[in-house]
Amino acid sequence: MVYSLTWLPDVLEAAGLKVAECTGWRTRGRGDVGTIRGVICHHTAGAQQGVMPSLNTLINGRAATAQTKPLTGLLAQLGLARDGTYFVVAAGRANHAGAGRWQGIESGNTSFIGIEAENTGINEPWTEVQLDAYCRGVAAILKHIGASENMVCGHKEFALPQGRKVDPTLDMDTFREKVGQILRGKAQLRPSIPSSDSSGRATLRRGAKGELVRQVQFTIGITKDGYFGPNTEATVREFQRHHALVPDGIVGPKTWSELLKISATPTAQSKTAPAVIEGKFKPDQACIDLIKKYESCKLTAYPDPGSGGEPWTIGWGSTGPDINKETKWTQEECDQRFDSDLIHYGNQVVALLGSAETSAAQFGALTSFAYNAGLHALEESTLLRKHKAGNFEGAAEEFARWIYGSGKKLPGLIRRREEEASLYRSGKIE
Ligand SMILES: [Zn+2]
Fold first, then answer.
1. Distance 426 CA to ligand 1 centre (A)
2. Structural domain boundaries of the chain?
3. Does 232 score more than 70 pLDDT?
4. Active site residue 295
5. pLDDT grade, residue 218 (50/70/90)?
6. I need a surface site. Which of 2, 154, 171, 231 has the fewest CB within 10 A?
7. How confident is the model at residue 275 (pLDDT cuts 50, 70, 90)?
8. CATH assignment of 5-183?
9. Are 231 and 222 in contact (CB under 8 A)?
10. Could you tell me how far CA 15 lies from the centroid of its own chain?
11. Of the candidates 406, 345, 343, 349, which has an alpha carbon nearest to the alpha carbon of residue 381?
């Protein structure tokens, strides 16, 4: 059954907070809550690494260790990650309060929402972004239930006998003061997710429309209708989980950065791509030779020349979530990755070609082009349009237009495009 606290994500989102809903949260609970009167703040006392390493424990509890008693699962309705994201864990009753009293109310689990904020509890300073989200989230909940800041307390204040709990490691009087300022509209708030990334790409969320949405949809392999609806949001979350991002379904700067890597290296397979048809569509030796001639192979990761950092690149120009500044590969590993990347590229190019008649040489030339300029560039190009229309000479001439890097003509690109055009022309279709 669906429990009562289904309003949590909307209320938090309306306060400008990042929210990630955990699968099955609406029907999760140890029964339902009663009338909610306030909020009890906790810290997880969890691991030091990661944004929300305790998430699984919040849901499932944990077994006893030598030092600790076992914890029976569902330990809070909300988990607050170190980066300020709220994970919505449950809409029902959670086991978070234990015996205690606050403002005369003793039924902790029934009357209070529990928020477990990720913090080791051992001298870990609270980051500004997490603390800000903590106060804002609590204020939003209190406003929703019509309560004042006096209705938020720390677990250490609620728990009886006194001293039974030490969490959270926050000065709760200061915390309440800040919550009160927010409730009265007097707080200085830090800005939430930036509205665009450093290149000016807008942050996209549910309801957004237009060309950027189409670009996202293309990259994650769903129908490009240009509307950021529930399906787009769900697929973005899936993408984010896959790339170790916070699965909030919002395409902000960090998600953009990962998406842009993928649109240049389609190791994340597009759902519209056909299955790997090795042999028939594997780019041939002429294509492989052409690409390897213009990409050098590096055994240690190097930064992107544009950003000086992400995305880190290694081998034959490979990038991906598994590659960072520490990555070192053997020549064999580089070659293996190149082979598998090339098959993925080949398949994506096949998908773009559809039923258009294409020779092996043309296919090789287009794959080399896509490997370098990106699949998105190929997809939107006049080159592809002319090819699909059977205007092969017109298509061959198009290669020469793609010779710019950072607004300048690059000699390496001029030569590469000449060779691609020449390979393309070598495979005539009668
Ligand atoms: Zn606690």
1. 71
2. 5-183, 211-264, 285-426
3. yes
4. yes
5. confident
6. 171
7. very low
8. 3.40.80.10
9. yes
10. 21
11. 349
Distance from chain centroid for Cα 138: 25
Q: How far is CA 246 from CA 83, 94, 154, 358, 430, in A?
A: 9, 23, 26, 41, 52
How far, in Å, is the centroid of ligand 1 from the Cα of 184?
A: 28
What radius of gyration, in Å, describes the C-alpha atoms of the chain?
Answer: 27
- Torsion over CA: 88, 89, 91, 97 (sign): negative
For the chain, give the number of residues.
430
| Segment 371-418, tens digit of pLDDT | 888 888 898 889 998 888 888 899 999 999 998 877 788 888 999 999
What is the 332 CA–ligand 1 centroid distance (Å)?
Answer: 51
Tell me whether residue 194 is exposed, middle or buried, using C-beta atoms within 10 angstroms of its C-beta: 0 to 12, 13 to 18, 19 or more: exposed
CA of 51 to the centre of ligand 1 (A): 18
Domain covering 285-426 in this structure, CATH number: 1.10.530.40
- Cβ neighbours of residue 259 closer than 8 Å, sequence gap 6 or more: 215, 216, 219, 220, 239, 251
Per-residue pLDDT for 320 more than 90? no
